[in-house]
Amino acid sequence: MRHTKLLLLALFVAAATPAFAKRELLQAYLEMFPPYGCTRDPDQSRFRVDPAYTVNGNKVCFTARVVPCARPGSACCKPDVDFNKLEFFVGTTCKGSIDRVTVDGERAQMPTFELYGAKQNKALYKMTNLNLTTRTAEGKQICINLGGPCPTMQDLCPQARLRLARHRRRLHRRCCNQNLSKIEWWTKDSCRGSVRAAYLDGVKVDRQWAKKTFKLPQLNIAQASIPPEGLELCIELISTASCSTLSTFCFRGDKGMCTYSMFNSDKKCCPINTYAALPSRRLL
């Protein structure tokens, strides 16, 4: 069966993409789809997904397309752009509904389900490592197997709309090969005073608070000084404080994740990401 419902596409560039944003937008991004600072103009994208998709039992397939760039010269239109990750805006009750992903019949990495938004009232599925390029993406079939609480596309996508977000990887973007100036975490105002200390490779570093934000403001780490094995960054929480674990310290910690942003020296690059909020007082 072939479906021709209009798919609302939110094709974007993330991961290595610069988030030209002020710190105050850290929370605002998390209310949007996709919940990142990214390029959202579809005219700057080299990729599309056909609005019509096919259904065969519980298998749903989408067709990738490579299109000319409508804004020549933009960073997202350069020849080495790729199609690395696809995200679906889905219903909040659909966790466990996608149990298989394939690209042209080859099994891909399992997707991850994530709630987001201050009220945790939005959800998405991430499908990573698609590894498509402008040379290989045209006509490729990206398929998912549905089941669980949302066994059909009508169940999976709220208001009968499918929103898709496309990620790319690129090593020569403006935000690559930058020095690290500071890191900020989305936290709660009630957690002020819960941090005993922060350490970078065992050396204590300065820390500050702002509204719903905990930050390490003066890291000033040169990119060339970071060893291949990386640097260990630790936040030590006070065991008797109101926020004694990452699950209570991070704004979305009760959902199993912490949200943070890393800034370069001129604050024009501040990509947002998450990591697991494990129940430990000393972890990153």
From TrEMBL:
Record's signal peptide: 1-21
Q: Supply the InterPro entries for this chain.
A: Pherophorin (IPR024616)
Q: Tell me the superkingdom of the source.
A: Eukaryota
- Give the protein's recorded name: Pherophorin domain-containing protein
What are the alphabetically sorted keywords of the record?
A: Signal
**Ranges for domain Pherophorin:** 33-159, 173-271
